[in-house]
Amino acid sequence: MKKASIKDVARTADVSIATVSQILNNKGERFSQATRDRVFEARDAVGYVPNANARSLKKRDYTLIGVIVPTLKLPYFGAFVQSLRDDLPENVSLSIMSGEREAADEAVDRLVEAGASGIIIVSQLAEPETVAQTLKQRHIAMVVTENHANLKDADAVFSKDRMGGRLAAEHLIAQGHERVVLLGNQVFTDNLTYRAESFKETMLEAGVKVSEITTHNLSKQSGQAAAMAVSISKATAAFALNDDLAIGLISGLAKLNWRVPDDVSVVGFDDTEYAAFYQPGLTTVHQNVSLLAQTSLNFLMQRIENFQMARQDIAIDVDLIERASTRSLK
Amino acid sequence: MKKASIKDVARTADVSIATVSQILNNKGERFSQATRDRVFEARDAVGYVPNANARSLKKRDYTLIGVIVPTLKLPYFGAFVQSLRDDLPENVSLSIMSGEREAADEAVDRLVEAGASGIIIVSQLAEPETVAQTLKQRHIAMVVTENHANLKDADAVFSKDRMGGRLAAEHLIAQGHERVVLLGNQVFTDNLTYRAESFKETMLEAGVKVSEITTHNLSKQSGQAAAMAVSISKATAAFALNDDLAIGLISGLAKLNWRVPDDVSVVGFDDTEYAAFYQPGLTTVHQNVSLLAQTSLNFLMQRIENFQMARQDIAIDVDLIERASTRSLK
């Protein structure tokens, strides 16, 4: 069926197209209430909806920004996006996209097409430099929480991942663990690389042996699948690069009748809500996700306001939260 | 700084505005490669970005649809949205919004303004009939997964919530529980009401006493806060209206040194991924979230294709998944 046009409204209300246009655009003060009512009734009767694009050309009264996360299935990213939403200024609209690498680069294109004034990129990009340059040329603000190392054309907000890896290592060293497993993603993103590297460096300095078990991705399923490998590794502790891996590992160990922390200690990363509510409570590196989201949003809005300002970046502290999933061997 | 215009590109490339327009719109075959290169270079040099709205008026080559969920913090909704994304046809773009009741109604307005052709509404609306009528008049497709009882102007896809409540009750009855607690949200949505009502009805028929504990919302925090009330209720089992409440309850009971299922059995609802990975594994009512998402998307795309087709609704079966959080008293 053909969509109703403004002509249909005018014919039904028995007024001119100009009258319809003015009344529907809230500029119909000079018309009688009866005429205005007739136009609104006619609009509803014929099912007319103004062409949103045509209308927004004239009065787009909000700023569109976008956020790109790897997936909404992992609660860390859900919490990040929800935190952005909760802090959104009234005249700003947020479009949420998901995707990793090539798919993340494509999501950027889609947001540019949609007219976004700025984009917060939580995902790893396939070609970060190219994306950053393109957005800069087009005066579209960009904040990254990954890829921050060499990206001079984007503002950056990130957790101190190296500090996190080191805190996890120091915790296990202090508890007397001398043989540990590092459980991580096979394809490392920058942030995961920092966590893993500083964990291994700290352990090496302390003379602790680290064996590595690669996993398919960062999911609970991948953690569970790694349980057998952990159980035969002779390690007394495992560091998983995120909480979901850690939770999966603990549940996989339980199926093998291994208990945490009695048989093996487990440390996670993120401190998603599930870490605190898990049984046993998960010892993990806390990322301040709401501060990360708020700061990303602030940087983005500042850049939209003043595109020429100097680049901003900030590294946010992490903490080790000690719960029941690790125990001292001393 | 003033945004670069097409004039700036034309001046920099030393060609006419018409030439720039044709080349940037991929209609510049008749121009030399040198001219085309010069125009693209000029565009990048001046940082010109075509007005997305102006452009999409002429050639909007994708369909925009929207989804509105209560929050992205709860993994059930994250899984629903991610499942929609995974199934999205190539020429369809998805805008994700979050909000409940009045905020959900406003999210509908925002999606209409953005030119959405259809909206999947997972949240409870404040005025479902009004929203459905308005969208119908404007020929915008609408699928609801809540509010389905009396909403004749929207297609509906929903889990058999009454069946779920009954299955939970029958499981506890079969295990010999004679005093149970129902743990639920203070402000009921339709779906939660169905779960709770059929649970209570089934229990009543079996002569089992049900006491109710209201919670602030459906979060893990609310479940944890209810642990004391459950522990003094003398009930041998608790039915929580979603998994997050159940997980929160189990962790709250652990802090009181109550063990699940030894001291009290716990049943959840949803079967989010955390139910299987929790310790103990959570007995829960499984909702087929990916089938719910796929079917919602199919209904929406069919309605967009043919707005006049008859209303569709479908109720999707649920199952009870028995894990380690419940035990037989017999």
From TrEMBL, chains A, B:
InterPro entries given for it?
A: HTH_LacI, LacI/GalR-like_sensor, Lambda_DNA-bd_dom_sf, Peripla_BP_I
Q: Secretion signal: which residues?
A: none
Identify the residues that the record assigns to the HTH lacI-type domain, covering every copy: 4-59
The protein's superkingdom reads Bacteria
UniProt KW keywords = DNA-binding, Repressor, Transcription, Transcription regulation
Q: Name one GO molecular function term.
A: transcription cis-regulatory region binding
Q: Check the record and name the Pfam families matching this protein.
A: LacI, Peripla_BP_3
Q: Under which name does UniProt file this protein?
A: LacI family regulatory protein
Q: Which organism is it from?
A: Weissella minor
Biological classification of the source: Bacteria, Bacillati, Bacillota, Bacilli, Lactobacillales
